[in-house]
Fold these 2 entries.
Entry 1:
Amino acid sequence: MPKTRKLQAAQALREAFEQAMAADPRVFMVGLGASDPKGIFGTTSGLQEKFGAARVIDPPCSESALTGIAIGAALMGQRPILSHQRVEFSLLALEQIIDNAAKMHYVSRGQHRVPVVIRMIIGRGWGQGAQHAQSLEVLYSHIPGLKVVMPVTPADHKGMMLAAIADDSPVIFLEHRWCHYTEGEVPVDPVPASLDGPEKLADGEDITVVATSFMVLEAMQAVSAAAKYGVKADFFDLRVLRPLNLAAILASVKRTGRLLFIDTGWTTYGIGAEVVAQATEQAFDSLRAAPRRLGLPEMPVPASPVLAKSYYVTAADIVDTMLQMANPTADRQTARAELEAIRDRLPFDVPHPAFKGPF
Amino acid sequence: MPKTRKLQAAQALREAFEQAMAADPRVFMVGLGASDPKGIFGTTSGLQEKFGAARVIDPPCSESALTGIAIGAALMGQRPILSHQRVEFSLLALEQIIDNAAKMHYVSRGQHRVPVVIRMIIGRGWGQGAQHAQSLEVLYSHIPGLKVVMPVTPADHKGMMLAAIADDSPVIFLEHRWCHYTEGEVPVDPVPASLDGPEKLADGEDITVVATSFMVLEAMQAVSAAAKYGVKADFFDLRVLRPLNLAAILASVKRTGRLLFIDTGWTTYGIGAEVVAQATEQAFDSLRAAPRRLGLPEMPVPASPVLAKSYYVTAADIVDTMLQMANPTADRQTARAELEAIRDRLPFDVPHPAFKGPF
Amino acid sequence: MITMTNEHPQLGLFRSMLRIRMIEEAIADRYAEQEMRCPVHLSIGQEAAVVGACSALRKTDKVVTTHRCHGHYLAKGGDLRRMMAEIYGRDAGCCGGRGGSMHLFDDDAGVVVSQPIVGSSIPVGVGIALAFQQAQKDDVAMICLGDAATEEGVFHESLNFAALKKLPALFFVENNYFSVYTHLSNRQPVRPISNMALGHGMASAQVDGNDVLAVQEAVAAAVTRARAGEGPSLIVADTYRFREHCGPLFDDDLGYRSPEEVDHWKLREPLERFRQDLQSRNIIDAALEAKLKATIQGEIQDAFDFAINAPAPSPASLGEYVYAQNA
Amino acid sequence: MITMTNEHPQLGLFRSMLRIRMIEEAIADRYAEQEMRCPVHLSIGQEAAVVGACSALRKTDKVVTTHRCHGHYLAKGGDLRRMMAEIYGRDAGCCGGRGGSMHLFDDDAGVVVSQPIVGSSIPVGVGIALAFQQAQKDDVAMICLGDAATEEGVFHESLNFAALKKLPALFFVENNYFSVYTHLSNRQPVRPISNMALGHGMASAQVDGNDVLAVQEAVAAAVTRARAGEGPSLIVADTYRFREHCGPLFDDDLGYRSPEEVDHWKLREPLERFRQDLQSRNIIDAALEAKLKATIQGEIQDAFDFAINAPAPSPASLGEYVYAQNA
Ligand SMILES: Cc1ncc(C[n+]2csc(CCOP(=O)(O)OP(=O)(O)O)c2C)c(N)n1
Ligand SMILES: Cc1ncc(C[n+]2csc(CCOP(=O)(O)OP(=O)(O)O)c2C)c(N)n1
Ligand SMILES: [Mg+2]
Ligand SMILES: [Mg+2]
């Protein structure tokens, strides 16, 4: 067993950067706020002091050029890490990502490599509003040539970041801001995690539950709660959205006959659509009930907390759906109420008791 | 019956622009090449002569600003039509489209309207290569607040364009360059078509076939061919990708029990994923076989004709899959061969006998 | 801008600056109550630039702005009650609570859009100017932006288009030297920001952004040119923000800017500077200022009361306004 | 650039220009066979700019370019056989047939990327310059672009970053006055394009792009500064394309440019102009030119033969190279 200790995910990421930069002089970082006192939610604090302003670049506000610059440097053998404090800022660079990063290896018949990591922070809460709290993982997951990952646990934040930095393909690294606050055991050494597929978090035979990113944390509560109502879930963190490796999930669906997918982003044309479609195509004869999806409803997120509260899917919604699917006679009201009570210990728009705004 | 006559889709579009601009002084057009001798594949020829350079603007090469400019003008009550000769150019403007066009009505609680039409031409063929022949409809279809349409017939090119111009929401109008060459009856008068949902093109009870854009034309050949092998398809042109109205298709699947979807873009996280997922969720008990999807494989399109030829899905592939699903003992080899022979009358990378390159 | 009859017009400028200052200080004071549950980007320190620029406009002119929009909204005549209700997430807010503090729109006052993505509202403003030109109106569109937004490509695309078409647009840059915590010198080479206009054949001026009269004069000249069809201008007003980038506090303890720098700017604090100027010219005295403050204080109290007591939007309305009902 | 020992260095420039001209004319001549099944953007008319700029570089310097990349590829020393094989979609092409004529890469020659999305390769070139700086090499990155690319925001973002970091980058604009059929005057206000450098505090020059020696001199000066760590430059070379934007033909019959304008430029046709200059200085005569032509003709014949006879890529390889095999 590797030596571990408890860290928050944001700290785990910071450690991944520090270890990767110490180990490999080709690794450098470009990110608005990378060197500032808040250090991109604490994920880059102290790195510029340690590695200098040439390797931790706090750049102009020019997302498109910075992406192209990272790609150009990567073509020369460097290993840049680009950070966006909000996924929306990356939209300004989509042409570079889709046309250059994703395609140069293919178009050059393997002569070029683009070992770039692009961090995009997704999130919610505290009146961020329609342009500062989107998820948008589908925009990247649809594109061959990109790898797209969404870590959840602190160990994965570190391990998947190390793997992404070491990867010779461009990796889109989607971090949910609220996952930054999760705590867990993280290996001390720089051990890359696999980017090959999902991770199973619980074993069960009644239903297969799959979620991405922050919704894994909500689903985890629901999975525990459902067990008390006799519903045991095979529970997966999808982790890697592209290339999509559903082998373990399909095997699970073949056993359980039921699939519930929980998206962090919008449901329609979301990640769950592909997972449900593949499950249906490939495990049709094993399905005992219609698969279901939960995800964001068909609108931008409003700033007002009262409206936003009814916008997001919660553990209560998940347990409710799980019971509907696998134990329809269970007391869903009570199951919901228990999870709502837990949730209501904190305001719904706050990720952690320490959080006081303003962003 | 309205008076009609035969037009090519490109001419039908041109007529829509001319009639809309003549009828409403608020309508204006911004597009690279709008006034040039080729007139955006003939769709804008002569319009600048007729309406002047202030209403048919052939602008600088600045996709992001032009999109914002169209949005700003729309907020003031104008009705701009923006054209991109390749969908890829719109990627430079994605931030404007997703954050401003799609959200202003919502964020302003309905005070603002953004009646913008953004044409994006998708296509294939003649060595266009990885950055000039993508489809990318999912990137837009995932976003609440946008309407996303893909016309196929000449009548729809005209009617849906008129409806898009008249619509008070932003409409992404995805034209397949190869559909521009289709010929068909088009009403003389400016009659808007509905943007409410799919159109049924054939009735059958054995299988529901749904396709988008140019793949409707391939599927149409396959649907006819399959009938000769005893497979009658209920056949739909999806037309409107967002808001997605699957009522008619779900009703069909409930009757046929079989669903085949053909995507114009990449399969994975494609339009078909959502349609298959919804069909499974909502018509589960009626499904007699696993739904299936066809679409582009998991890579950029290579320029070399030899490689590109194996890249695209054809009518032959579609009939083959239809027969596999609905009449597995039929002679699929012969069915394929017949359609391949028809296709091979023209080089595969040429949309029309008149086409001689270079783009 | 609100001006009373028979009063010295510069008093109106002072009142507008003072009012913005007092409103934002009230927001800062009450932010810790955790009832304004959205980010707030205060313009405290930048009031001379804000008021100087907006005071050169008329009501039918339009403004687009950014995350730091409170000042422009107020200076252009936006409704204070609806602003506070928006920040409190209420149905009576100027965006029905959908927007929060970074989305302050007031169509009547001509505040069309504020948008928190840096640079994003710039071309929207150019589009408004294009619509004015198409309608042959002599209104102008003022595009408010920060220094960091000049690093976004869309800024240049917008300048080029506006210059090419001689649009009635005004690019008004409040250069407060910072993009969040990152100083201008880490983001741009050394040369006047207004030089960017040369690349696009555009008129430009760089002014002391803490001198409300200087700003007003420069903007008024540009507005006159724009109305006359002589095309757009770029105006850069150098100024300073005193509080943290986002939020109610002072954060100079974080060490991202030197005490000397902060002191330098405190000496040039725009409200005090204008007060002294007006006092020396006998346009204002302590009694008059006290009266102004009392009136504004009453207005602020009223607006907070209104906002706090206003009903929240109904959760049932969550799904409305995604698509426009076609007329 | 290929130079023979003992020959006058300007003869090498002439040979390079002549070679590009002859190769592109051969492509134009054979395009109608419909065997080169991809778009082609010929640089016929722009050879002085292309060769002047590339001749100021050394082998370890890098170039990025655009859809109109044949000239840069050849002038920088790219392999002709592999270029023709690429245009014919063959496995032996410089991109294995995956790219076509708009993707001509030759790592050995330092042609890193060509990209058909206008402006898209500009920041990639800046990233190459950043890598040089990080590795403390004194190589430079030359970024070739057209006049329309200066309208894309990313051009300005790239200039700002390069100027800020004093990168060894060179922005080389071939201003042929057209973006497809749209004249510069419909796209940009009247002022020298090189003015854009002023906005970013960058050195710049505007040169006669049909004078190969003038271009070479301007670029060489910029290269010297860049190698010395003195930062990037913008160089604008005014020139003209004689054939259609894309494809093998002349299209002046379409009326998008006046016969007078075309005649004006014909008088300044760069190859003929340089020929006369070299003749007047006795560096070339008809016999020597005939010899050059014969050699180039042989090379062209060989490259076409090679390409036409080269095997197509195997359809089975379609799915390769989507992801890199990690080292
Ligand atoms: C495209 C984009 N990139 C980054 C950000 C994060 N961000 C929010 S405000 C800000 C600073 C903007 O500085 P400036 O334009 O000078 O305005 P100021 O805040 O100083 O008023 C940044 C970088 C953003 N909102 N949008
Ligand atoms: C972003 C983008 N917009 C539009 C186009 C279509 N297009 C292809 S080449 C071209 C003209 C480019 O002109 P310029 O940069 O001057 O280069 P030139 O063709 O004159 O060499 C255009 C507009 C494109 N490829 N990319
Ligand atoms: Mg600033
Ligand atoms: Mg040009």
Entry 2:
Amino acid sequence: MNEVLEETVSIKFNRQIGKDTWLMGFRSDNLASLAKPGQFLMVHLGRTTKDPLLRRPFSIHRIQDKNQLMLLYKIVGKGTLLLSCLKEDDSISVIGPLGNGFTISKPHEKTLLIAGGMGVAPLFFLAQSLNKVQKQKITMFLGFTTSQEVILINELKDLNIDLSLTTEDGSLGITGIVTDLLDEYLDRELNSKPVIYACGPILMLKKVAQMAIASNLRCYVSLEGHMACSLGICQGCAVKANNNKNKPYYYVCQDGPVFSSEMIDWQVM
Amino acid sequence: MNEVLEETVSIKFNRQIGKDTWLMGFRSDNLASLAKPGQFLMVHLGRTTKDPLLRRPFSIHRIQDKNQLMLLYKIVGKGTLLLSCLKEDDSISVIGPLGNGFTISKPHEKTLLIAGGMGVAPLFFLAQSLNKVQKQKITMFLGFTTSQEVILINELKDLNIDLSLTTEDGSLGITGIVTDLLDEYLDRELNSKPVIYACGPILMLKKVAQMAIASNLRCYVSLEGHMACSLGICQGCAVKANNNKNKPYYYVCQDGPVFSSEMIDWQVM
Amino acid sequence: MVSQPDLSVNIGGLKIKNPVITASGTFGYGNELIPFYDPSLLGVIIVKGLSIQPMPGNPPPRIIETPCGLLNAIGLANIGIETFIEEKLPSLVKIKTPIITNIYGHSIKEYAEMAKRIESVDRIAAIEINISCPNVEKGGMAFGTDPDAAARVTDQVVKNTTKPVIVKLTPNVTDVSIIAKAVESAGAQAISVTNTFLGMAVDVATRQPKLTNIIGGLSGPAIKPMALYLVHKVVTNVKIPVIGVGGIMDYQDALEFIIVGASAIQVGTANFINPKTAIDIVRDLTDYCLKEKVSNINQIIGSLKTNGENYEKSGDKKNK
Amino acid sequence: MVSQPDLSVNIGGLKIKNPVITASGTFGYGNELIPFYDPSLLGVIIVKGLSIQPMPGNPPPRIIETPCGLLNAIGLANIGIETFIEEKLPSLVKIKTPIITNIYGHSIKEYAEMAKRIESVDRIAAIEINISCPNVEKGGMAFGTDPDAAARVTDQVVKNTTKPVIVKLTPNVTDVSIIAKAVESAGAQAISVTNTFLGMAVDVATRQPKLTNIIGGLSGPAIKPMALYLVHKVVTNVKIPVIGVGGIMDYQDALEFIIVGASAIQVGTANFINPKTAIDIVRDLTDYCLKEKVSNINQIIGSLKTNGENYEKSGDKKNK
Ligand SMILES: Cc1cc2nc3c(=O)[nH]c(=O)nc-3n(C[C@H](O)[C@H](O)[C@H](O)COP(=O)(O)OP(=O)(O)OC[C@H]3O[C@@H](n4cnc5c(N)ncnc54)[C@H](O)[C@@H]3O)c2cc1C
Ligand SMILES: Cc1cc2nc3c(=O)[nH]c(=O)nc-3n(C[C@H](O)[C@H](O)[C@H](O)COP(=O)(O)OP(=O)(O)OC[C@H]3O[C@@H](n4cnc5c(N)ncnc54)[C@H](O)[C@@H]3O)c2cc1C
Ligand SMILES: Cc1cc2nc3c(=O)[nH]c(=O)nc-3n(C[C@H](O)[C@H](O)[C@H](O)COP(=O)(O)O)c2cc1C
Ligand SMILES: Cc1cc2nc3c(=O)[nH]c(=O)nc-3n(C[C@H](O)[C@H](O)[C@H](O)COP(=O)(O)O)c2cc1C
Ligand code: FES
Ligand code: FES
């Protein structure tokens, strides 16, 4: 097992950057030095209350200035609402870094990052890291429902990424969903044999994975799961394994959150 | 039943003024115009959480500038801890004004206010009001455990009150408990037949009430009780009545929180 | 203009304009919350549990907060059925909502006597029988935990009234469906699920129970998952309508119970926290139906889907 | 210097250095929390419930958060007793804390077989029998809700082992003391109270149960008042030591159970929220004893005062 810490950190900033979307930063030398792209943290919100009860998982979104970690999150329920109420100097307890993280492609490989909505959170950190090792420009497809949700465009451009954007309502970028871009790309550039990294809604991931499997491409998807412990203890975050007799279920917190696309039984998803 | 409102108010300030003791202010024309000394508000703390579940009762501590209400509170548990985390412009829902409030003495009557610890909260508002009608100077006995807890001395002096202070450890004022002062006072000035108003820990109130009964003095005590509804519905906040066949229990939220000392069965307290 | 959805449901013969009911013991004698809204907007008001004789209740403390829960040992403090009818009921004349009395007896005979007394009172629309109060030492507990006793109480009340009889079950049993079926067979027209769960709390500093009564009944959001499970179990075992109670704080909680198969819901502890809860739920259910294009709330009752199937196929018929 | 208080207690013959135990299913196979502290500091480690054959568990979602509660339908996913003994147990060699296996069988025969298998394993100090798992359709539920079945399981396990046998009860019964007395008579040396409460949750948007298994077991702070009541009821009805479990988050929660009469406590769901909970409780209980001048924790067990009386007079004897 990798090294895991519990640390109380003091929030440096916590600000809204898009529709219901917030960016939070804090410093931690230990976590920053251990963290790999695709790993996540468990954040404890209930210092003064037992509701919400459980910690909430958030991907490590970015590491900056050596020791500043950032979380990118969307308000979807009471935990994330409480998180958005925290202000500079408030402290939170985090556990991490957790999970396996992405397998980094080789320097000569073509890499394609596909993010749906908040899926961009871990892929940003991945892009930061890939940039350091990759010879070819990274390609990224980014999909949102509508222009108000679109975030991080400038920051991603600063990373010198080949970026394409879709919105479902066409209010910004190409009209459609992010997998449309993949369709097109595979028609055009299948021969480049890209390594695909994807994070986003489960149905998007299913589509990406199935396309990758059909095209015989290496593809890593970052999954979510309902987590209690995040340490492989509770067996709550199960996801059905594809044809693995020894292990009918993987656990997202330990075996994942990143899975190679053929590991998962996509039928039941 | 008196008029009762539910209102969401925006906090103007919320600051620590003594050991674990906080003062919070907000504006409400409606509540300020309805409120009487001795009444209280039910404050809802859990906008984003269900724990704490119930509203918490706080006396109306002061009314200033026509429409500014203040609460004075001590951190004793999770609700008051959460309350102290609120900042300017945060909003809370309050219900009130609740309860009967103090019966104001007649202009010529001598009044004696006895506060133990947070008991000073409603007595401050009472002193403000009595000052407007009383011909004689108000006397107030104020007791705390230790000097660090002592608060509001200057504000009370500004009200031109005849003030005596005790601390149990003698770190400020007279060494002892506040009822010692009453003992002495009754020895000295029983003939002035003061009307006594008391608020504080239950054992202090019991002592004050029993002394008042023994000396045949009018005495009003403000009690606490575990409250759920604050509207006479749940029958949770019961307090044993003294010799009342029709009503074995009074309800602090409706029949009180202020009771004339002979109404209560002090034996079971 | 969109037409308003039909929220009316039928509770064992009593047709009510919407499925939102205030739970016994959490809404006083019917008009205490008038400062906050017009109770005429509610589906039903169930008043504080009544006994033949007034009852003083337990010594304080009677209530304690627990994590997301409320532990109470009120001890059925009430003014007695006679005083209620004579002094409280007349003041409810302006409220255009059916009143249901919740009754509690120390013996089967007392239940029967109360039913008889209520029979002559037009203003009372139905009777809810509390066979589940955990706070009173004698009797109460026994009736609700034993199918025969529960059936006998039900039978005696049904025999002494023409009004619909609702039996309110206790959750503190091994198999709630056995009790449910027993009271259904005995003639109950509807079932309320659930009363409070037995609980306790200790003051560590004094090493004394926090409630003078030692044991209390737990209500509030903490019990919602358990109440929902019990409703699920009862609706799949009886044909009469079921009223869901337990931890309902908003319209989404209410919908969970309705989807599982409750024909109506009761709001209890939530009345203490936000006095407008019940009326907010009526408004929000209306909005929900409009948004989801549900013209009649009966379409949602028992619409729980399991493995793509409509689980509670019989949900709809219960309200016809 | 002040001498350290004696926190050791005796659980049915097993003497342990302190009364803090990690609950089955919430501490993995024993060493998962090593990044956070040395498990040797714990009183006992109870490992994940084991069956004869490995079990895959239920399809996800398996866990859902409810107000102050956790609803789980893991479905007893486990690697099986054999793999545990061969692959996991050896890695616990450095941990200086007794290991207890929690066992679950589909039949009485399976329970007996597991007891036999464990008998030969020195490293396992005692057996906790799970007769209460609410998540597995067949068998499990029945044993824990029926006194005869519970007694038969206990009897068969006791007959096949010389190790102390602890029976873990289900709360989903009308009268827990009947089951407790039955397993005591059948030879159980201690009783754990309680396993999870049956519960359910519905996704209003999809109208589907939130758990694929539909029904789950509720744990966490929400259940604490109920668990405490059940412990109270059991300690007043049996003579063997009782282990309190349910919603314990800190040393004050632990003390509530101990004051009521629990000789030890288990930490479950709290391990997920603050992985150091159990060890914090050990530290805080020590500090509490020092502050309150309690030289031996047995002085607190069953020290509940009701009406000025020491309620559980027999509390002390249980640990001698
Ligand atoms: C490994 C991992 C990494 C994640 N990274 C991020 C991130 O970087 N940014 C971000 O915004 N979100 C991320 N999430 C999702 C995030 O954890 C949930 O949005 C959050 O826990 C919701 O908490 P809440 O209290 O606000 O919502 P709740 O009130 O708990 O739930 C609101 C809704 O969200 C659903 N939900 C709750 N928890 C989860 C979950 N774990 N997985 C899927 N659905 C859930 C509920 O079913 C419900 O529909 C991640 C999840 C995982 C498992
Ligand atoms: C009419 C009335 C007026 C009050 N006015 C004030 C005031 O002006 N300033 C102030 O600081 N406090 C006041 N109180 C007390 C205040 O309501 C409690 O301190 C507060 O509710 C505690 O909440 P908590 O969540 O912080 O503590 P909890 O965690 O709920 O409890 C902490 C401790 O306080 C005790 N406690 C909790 N609620 C009450 C209660 N209602 N009565 C007595 N003990 C209780 C608990 O038993 C426990 O020991 C008043 C109480 C009443 C009934
Ligand atoms: C303070 C209080 C008093 C209650 N009194 C009664 C009663 O008199 N009769 C009854 O049948 N139920 C009574 N109940 C139970 C409620 O009607 C309801 O069944 C229970 O509280 C669960 O619902 P809730 O979680 O919404 O509160 C009472 C509950 C509370 C909290
Ligand atoms: C995820 C999870 C898995 C559990 N697995 C088991 C188990 O295998 N065997 C068992 O006897 N109890 C099991 N339990 C029950 C706990 O051991 C404990 O009795 C219960 O959770 C109540 O305690 P708590 O509120 O502290 O969690 C499990 C509980 C949880 C939350
Ligand atoms: S969250 Fe507990 S095993 Fe993954
Ligand atoms: S708090 Fe409900 S009656 Fe007083």
